[in-house]
Write a structure and sequence with these properties.
By secondary structure, the protein is mainly α. Helices cover 75% and strands 0% of the residues. It has helices at 15-39, 46-65, 77-100, 103-110, 113-125, 131-147, 154-179, 185-206, 214-237, 243-250, 252-264, 271-296.
């Protein structure tokens, strides 16, 4: 007897819709993360914010993906740990920048990281940097210089932290190129969370800060969930769109954060913000596009 019920087929997502949807959703969640970091009270130090984010992220990943196997089983453990340390430093610098600057300005400077990634790729993988890449990197740096006011004080310190975070994020992206050949996105992120937890734990234990109100508990929970969900959505999005497209879509985080900062937090809007921001975003989009072309043509493999 033939079963009249049709065979259930797996759902196939349209890449043209799924890619942008995953990426834009991730960018929105990263925007939520940025706003939570900005809005948490001064009692929550960079170490407590980092500890809650990394400890909570590791807990969620182990609970979801570590039920039937060792979630820490990866390839090239030393590089996974190194990437975790570098990524942790990038996040700590970014938190410091968000605390000291208007969140919109901090994000624009931070998103100069593809320029640093191109430079690190040259030194680590010996990838050739052509004239157009050099021009794009120079435009990024000019945009950052426009955003800097070069006056001693809180703004200059925050701008310096944002730029340092961009540099470490650029190195992180470069290291991931090697790791993702034999490691999945979950284990790479799990090592970031675990390493970050170990780095921030000593300072947190010395001066622990606990949420005292339902609002603070909600913000800490939002900090954890938004970071984990944003990371996983972004990783999933790269299955449906090309690398440069994903980079451009993720740059929308700057736009979302800038709009939220201006409308909700009263961030100042100056000619430096618009001029420097546009230069950085356009140059970053060009760098992402050039990287995609280079890899499609078969860029020289690492030695």
């Amino acid at each position: 007897m033939v079963d009249p019920s049709p065979t259930r087929q797996p759902v196939q997502l349209d890449a043209a819709i799924a890619g942008p949807l995953f990426m834009l959703s991730a960018a929105l969640l990263f925007t939520v993360l940025n706003l939570i970091v900005k809005l948490l009270g001064p009692a929550f130090t960079v170490w407590s914010i980092g500890f809650y984010r990394f400890f909570g992220g590791a807990l969620v990943l182990v609970a979801v993906f570590g039920r039937h196997k060792n979630p820490y089983r990866g390839v090239n453990i030393r590089l996974l740990v190194l990437r975790g340390c570098v990524g942790c430093i990038a996040f700590i610098c970014m938190v410091m920048a968000i605390r000291l600057l208007p969140v919109s300005t901090a994000l624009i400077i931070f998103y100069s990281y593809p320029a640093f990634s191109a430079v690190f790729s040259f030194f680590i993988y010996r990838e050739r940097i052509g004239g157009f890449e050099i021009t794009s990197i120079a435009m990024v740096l000019i945009g950052v210089a426009i955003l800097f006011d070069f006056k001693l004080g809180t703004d200059l310190l925050g701008q310096s932290f944002a730029l340092a975070g961009a540099a470490f994020a650029g190195l992180t992206v470069t290291l991931i190129r090697t790791l993702r050949k034999k490691n999945g996105p979950v284990i790479i992120y799990l090592y970031l969370c675990t390493t970050g937890m170990l780095v921030t734990a000593p300072m947190f234990v010395m001066h622990p800060v606990w949420p005292c109100t339902p609002l603070e508990w909600g913000m800490i929970l939002g900090l954890i969930l938004s970071s984990v969900m944003a990371q996983l959505l972004m990783n999933q999005g790269f299955f449906y769109c090309r690398g440069w497209e994903g980079g451009v879509f993720m740059s929308s985080e700057v736009i979302f954060t800038a709009v939220a900062g201006i409308m909700l937090l009263g961030d100042p809007v100056t000619w430096r913000f618009w001029c420097g921001g546009v230069m950085i975003l356009v140059s970053v989009a060009a760098l992402n596009r050039l990287n995609a072309i280079a890899h499609r043509k078969g860029a020289a493999p690492p030695p």
